[in-house]
Known about the structure:
The structure is a single chain. The protein is an all-alpha fold. The protein has one domain (4-452): MFS general substrate transporter like domains (Growth Hormone, Chain: A, Up-down Bundle), CATH 1.20.1250. The chain is 81% helix and 0% strand. The protein has helices at residues 4-35, 40-67, 72-75, 79-96, 109-141, 145-168, 170-173, 181-204, 208-220, 226-234, 237-267, 275-300, 303-318, 327-363, 368-380, 382-396, 406-416, 418-434, 439-452.
Amino acid sequence: MAKKGIMVSYGMGKFIAEFLTGAFGSVVFMFYETEVGLSASYAALATLLYSLWNAVNDPIIGYITNKKAPSSKKIGRRFPWIMIGLVFSSVSFILIFSVPLSWNAKTQPIPVFLWMLITICLFDGLFSLWEVNYQSIYPDKFRGMQERTTTAAVATGIGVLGIAAGFIVPPLFFSYGVRESYFTCALVIAAVSALATFGVSFGVFESKEMIQRFAVQQEQEEAPHFFTQMKNALGNKNLLAFVILLFFYQSGCMLMTASINYVVKYVLQAKSSQATPIFAGMLIGTLLSILLWTQVAKRLKNNQMMLIICSFFLALFALPLTFLSSLTGYIVAMALWGLGFGGFWTFMSPAMADVIDGLVLEQKRRDDGIVMGIRAFFMRFSYASQALVFFAVHRLTHFDPDAITSQAVWGIRLHIGLIPAVFFLIGGLLFLKMNTLNPKEVADNHNLLTQLNI
């Protein structure tokens, strides 16, 4: 059983991941569309191309880093990539908001478009370098069911602070209509992320047993070809069901979080600081959910079913956001939605580890890197779905940041409420139909992995 200190340190990775993801998702698209003046079509195209880059970037990074790393025989194959990626992804985040002030996206959109595309692709590549390896450590480092659940609960509690920081901190450092303030905000975000990196190092350091298992695996046989690993992974029905669910879940979450600043600015017609209490409501609900769902999970003992239940909760509580018109209403509604969000987030990693155990047994080797690359691709592709929904809704409702109509306001209401609810519902229903894992199979897989020492 891993010590609680290791679990806490590992959880700091969740803090950084959610902090950067939250800040990216809630600010970047709006910054380029409403502050820099880039049209929604160009911003959506940049995000779509960035997501296609992900299709190549994440699985390949997982495959390459799965095979070797600097000083892997001494400090492991994951640890070096995690630390390198963490430091440079924090720095690259600043570049996204460093588009020259003299550039006018309305008269010369191409330079701004290219700046957005290149910087978000650079950031994502470096983010994937550490995050894919960080996720790959979990099923290998924490191997028992109780250990995984406890680690996930601890990491969720810490990660919630990252969510809070990612959503609450940025509005405190930028102001609507003050373009240069977003650069200051990016500096703060990068500094917090860089400092938190020190807290992660202890929890992701690989034990002698982990390093030895990898050395034995390398001696036994050469790793399968990239496309062979891709085919085997995607041929596993439970893994395919899991990553499809993640896509719909993350797409819904991205739509909601990216919509909040639009709601504050155009629906509530308030200052950027008013986004903070809305995100705080979500935080409160998420924290309460950890206690609620942990008790439910003790009775069900089925991580896969927990994801299905939480998906339906997310859909149920996202829908009312379509019709609200007051700050108090949004705070309460986001707190209720946070109950489902926290539950899904708590059981996402244990459910993923259960799926990977089955895949490892099929292949008789642990090549988690490419699996995590596939997972990362499906989750990051949600940025494209969010951008495409924004583009379609804004085009249909004639959204103009300088002249907002009631029709455009209803478009914003749709992409914070109804459309995310549909995403959550579809994801839950598909997972319910496709996933076949049950508690007995999960327990049997764990026992076999222990016997085989994989």
